[in-house]
Design goal:
63 residues, mainly alpha
């Protein structure tokens, strides 16, 4: 009788803990948005390139 109780208790514990664990991959990938810094650097670079072009060719861009 003592062995049946231990076996029953072990099976009950395994059943309860085994049913609680769920591992699931996310449906959508994780997205990290870093566009703010990249865009800021791009705008500064383009502004400098445009100013250099205007300085080198003043006849193309009269004031």
């Amino acid at each position: 009788m003592d062995g049946r109780i231990k076996t029953g208790a072990i099976l009950a514990i395994l059943g309860l803990t085994g049913g609680c664990i769920t591992v699931k991959a996310p449906d959508k990938p994780i997205e990290i948005n870093l566009n703010v810094k990249i865009d800021a650097n791009l705008v500064v670079s383009l502004k400098k390139d445009a100013q250099d072009l205007i300085d080198k060719n003043p006849e193309l861009f009269p004031e």
